Amino acid sequence: MDNEIISHTSKPIIHLSAECYPVAKVGGLGDVVGALPKYLQAAGLYTWVVMPWYNKPFVQQHDFEVVYSGAFYQGSRPLTITVYKEKDNVLGFGLYLIKIPGLLDRDEPYGYADESEQFIAFQHGFLHWLTETGIMPDVVHCHDHHTGLIPFLMYYGEKFASLRHVPTVATVHNGQYQGWMNWNQAILLPAFDTWRWGLLDWDGIINPLAALIKCCTVFTTVSEGYLQELMEQANGLERLFAMERAKSVGIVNGIDTTIWNPGEDTMLHRNYHITDVQSGKRANKVFLCDAYGLDAEKPLLAYIGRFAGEKGADLLPEIIENILGDERVELNIMVLGSGDPQVQSAMADLAAQYKGRLGVYIGYQEDLSHRIYAAADFLIMPSRVEPCGLNQLYSMRYGTIPIVRKTGGLRDTVPDIDEPDGYGITFINAIAADAVAAVYRALELYNDKSRMHQLQEQVMRLDFSWDKSAAKYMEIYQNITA
Predict the structure, then answer these.
(1) 468 annotated to bind ligand
(2) What phi and psi, each to the nearest 5 degrees, are found at residue 403?
(3) Phi/psi zone of residue 175: left (φ > 0), alpha (ψ -120 to 50 degrees), beta?
(4) Which of 49, 58, 195, 454 is deepest in the core (most CB within 10 A)?
(5) Beta carbons of 286 and 300 less than 8 angstroms apart
(6) pLDDT one-digit tens code per residue, 319-350
(7) Are β-strands 425-427 and 332-337 bridged in parallel, bridged antiparallel, or unpaired?
(8) What is the rounded average pLDDT of the residues 196-209?
(9) CA Rg, the chain, in Å?
(10) 8 Å CB contact between 454 and 460
């Protein structure tokens, strides 16, 4: 097929990401990239998402057309590239997938020994495609370290001079992961101005996230609180974030309220609205509790997420043991997650020990997560690091009260019930004792039926849609393209 020269009355704003829901999602990055471009497109901006090709159900179930095919070298290795476009814009924006046999044709986004080569190929292939076909973006918006080399290569790569004046935006979803590479891998990069090597370097190694922050036009973080925290705790990049603060903006993520809508969510046992939140949640709780052998007459606490240290998941076994080990406590717990093998093993043991009080699903199911949000009375997030957090926003959309540690975006989005107009339960330290004390506060709230119902209705009225956040991104694009 002849390679397509893209033409349009306006230049696209291109979001470049390793994830995009529902194509491929591992965490919040996928949710953001699946939603923000849709809201930008609906607001009138010509928006694309470009990501690696994965062997996923979405790709198999939708129609794609080839818009480019070609080849380039990564070091001494010849690579072939094919770019596919989803034909029907079913996601509300243009979706393009880059396929490179041996590197960008995998089942999962992460977890491979040659991950550096994988994402170098993605970035090189993207820029090769643009320059070969004459595509000229209005803005290239890079998400996390997987796309961190893009601004540097656009501005200092020998083959990409045509893109030198295109502004770039970087969004840091999680600054703990930086894509580190030894300098012996520099040979894999397309040719660049070697006088600029220092822009790639941080502490003697190639650091794609550091390069992204140094070279982008503007960078954003996924909450205002996380922007401040990155200058205090960023896995070695604290000084860099402080140095580049002048070109930064903190913007809290939104949620896609068309997907996360208890009134229309097809994954729920029963739909409900603010006007019937009590009966609606009750019906969903009974359904979930029946499936996992729990008592629907008791309050239900949930955890949904990865079993990772930054999520505080290693605290879960101690939290659960302390709560369910107290025979005076009337409470059921539902856990959905996977990750750390030790946490997984501990959760399985606890589920057997507290059968009838603790339900556990090891793994992830999107539909089950929706049903848990609808059924639960409380959601706990004992995170050590939470750049924005989406689970607390999803829970409130479904009338579920969040119990969160005050960090990052959790601090920004969940004021405590003891604060003016507060609607959540918060705690300070990432230790089991503080989390357990917060759960006991939640049980007191649950027994105050009038206030509990008032807070359920209050959190369902909160507007965490992408409309406000998308408007802030549009302002950034306007400023840097003026």
Answers:
(1) no
(2) -115, 110
(3) alpha
(4) 49
(5) no
(6) 999 999 998 899 999 999 999 999 999 999 99
(7) unpaired
(8) 98
(9) 23
(10) no
Helix, strand, or coil here: 389?
Answer: coil
* CA distance linking residue 98 with residue 95, whole number of Å: 10
Distance CA 477, CA 482 (A): 8
pLDDT at 13: 98
What is the tens place of the pLDDT at every residue in 136-190? 999 999 999 999 999 999 999 999 999 999 999 999 999 999 999 999 999 999 9
Please give the C-alpha separations between residue 49 and each of 7, 16, 170, 184, 266, in angstroms, as whole numbers: 17, 6, 14, 31, 26
pLDDT tens per residue across span 14-37: 999 999 999 999 888 999 999 999
72 strand-pairing partners: 79
Query: Which position has the token pair 């997984």?
Result: 344
Of 428, 373, 427, which is closest to residue 400 (Cα–Cα)?
Answer: 373
The tokens describing 158, both together, are 């020998």
Which helix (DSSP H) or strand (DSSP E) does residue 218 occupy?
strand 218-221
Spatial strand order of the sheet with 401-405 comes to: 358-362, 332-337, 300-304, 378-381, 401-405, 425-427
**Are the beta carbons of 145 and 120 closer than 8 angstroms?**
no
Are the beta carbons of 12 and 371 closer than 8 angstroms?
no
Q: What is the pLDDT of residue 59?
A: 97
Q: Which residue's entry shows tokens 């955890």?
A: 303
357 Cβ contact partners less than 8 Å away, ≥ 6 residues apart: 294, 295, 324, 331, 332, 333
Q: Give the span between the Cα atoms of 326 and 189, in whole angstroms.
A: 58
The 3-class SS string of 331-359 reads CEEEEEECECHHHHHHHHHHHHHCCCCEE
Q: Are strands 168-172 and 218-221 parallel, antiparallel or unpaired?
A: parallel
Q: Domains plus CATH for the chain?
A: 13-255+467-481 (3.40.50.2000), 274-463 (3.40.50.2000)
Between the two ends of the chain, the Cα-to-Cα distance in Å is 37
Write out pLDDT tens, residues 432-442: 999 999 999 99
